[in-house]
Amino acid sequence: MATGAAALLALMMVSWAAVLAANAAAPSLDTSPVPFEAGYMPLFGGDNLVRSPDGRSVRLKLDASTGSGFVSKSAYHHGYFSASIKLPDDYTAGVVVAFYLSNGDVFPGNHDEVDFELLGSRRGHEWRLQTNIYGNGSTSRGREERYLLPFDPTLHPHAYAVAWTPTAIIFYVDGTPIREVVRVPAMGGDFPAKPMSVYATIWDGSAWATEGGRYKLDYAYAPFAADFSALVLSGCPVGGVEQVVGGGGGSSSSSSASCDVAVMTAESAVMTPAKRAAMRRFRRRHLLYTVCHDRYRYNGTVFPECDADGSERGDFHKWGESKLVSPSRRGYKKKRQQQRANKQAAGDRPSTWPIGTLLVD
């Protein structure tokens, strides 16, 4: 018995040593922004895609002739991807600005996708943020969540980021995690697992984007322009290790393995207690709708990765909408001094949001 226990202990020590050695040998992720030409190329839109003079940011425009977009030069198998985005103001109903991962060009019938979609609105109303994932073409089982934002996204750029590992997907806004999708066996192929490229687009989503399609895009307000900057492509490119520090050398398989270790041990992929608490606060204050608590959409089916401890369930109606968060319950202080300050900060231009400081219930 003692011999067996000693052998087991020795095996555990060897296993932990292997893990520690892998972590020590693995490079760390380089999350510094890249110039547009280094990581991306135009996708569509012609002159509606405008590069900045320094080549580090891009403006995407939508007008009556076309939208526009760009795509990463590499496909990635896991990683951390981020863009800072400044949205158009005034009347933007029907406008969709998207930053997402997809492989629909390679797997049109069973593609994977991880989405940030920013949904425009009529004048005086807020932009809304939607996140979603698909795996193996599971578009009939959408996993949408929608949020109000705690800031005016038309005044300054704000960072939207995805950390995608073999075991989880974490969505971030300005460094705060807002959603975590943990891979569980019951998800099957619904978890995105194939290499994906990174996309950014602006397009006409009048059919559904603003209050279910009630308000349409009005080209009298065109062109609509979204600015993308601080472009981060930090992951495991198919066929090599590009944006990982120290990724050169070694075999392709060992480089790929070291990249996966780097991705999974990166700060962005680790949900600490403090980050989880910040995520709960964000969701309680800003989450408008989640499919995880919608008992009608899929005839009572609850996705296996949803709210395992039930901590959020009491905050939502049976149709998935929040009991705590709604546009009608969000108010603004309208002090003249604050109005003048905001107007000056915005360059004396109109804002999509009412002037003032946002209050959250």
UniProtKB/TrEMBL annotation:
Region described as Disordered: spans on this chain: 327-361
Active site (UniProt): 113, 117
One cellular component term from this protein's GO annotations in UniProt: apoplast
PTM section of the record: Contains at least one intrachain disulfide bond essential for its enzymatic activity.
Coiled-coil segments: none
Signal peptide start and end residues: 1-21
Domain (GH16) ranges: 27-228
Cited InterPro entries: Beta-glucanase-like, Beta-glucanase/XTH, ConA-like_dom_sf, XET_C, XTH
Keyword entries, A-Z: Apoplast, Cell wall, Cell wall biogenesis/degradation, Disulfide bond, Glycosidase, Hydrolase, Secreted, Signal, Transferase
Gene Ontology molecular functions: hydrolase activity, hydrolyzing O-glycosyl compounds; xyloglucan:xyloglucosyl transferase activity
Localization per Swiss-Prot or TrEMBL: Secreted, Cell wall; Secreted, Extracellular space, Apoplast
E.C. no: 2.4.1.207
Record-linked PANTHER family: XYLOGLUCAN ENDOTRANSGLUCOSYLASE/HYDROLASE PROTEIN 8-RELATED
Protein name, per record: Xyloglucan endotransglucosylase/hydrolase
Organism of provenance: Dichanthelium oligosanthes
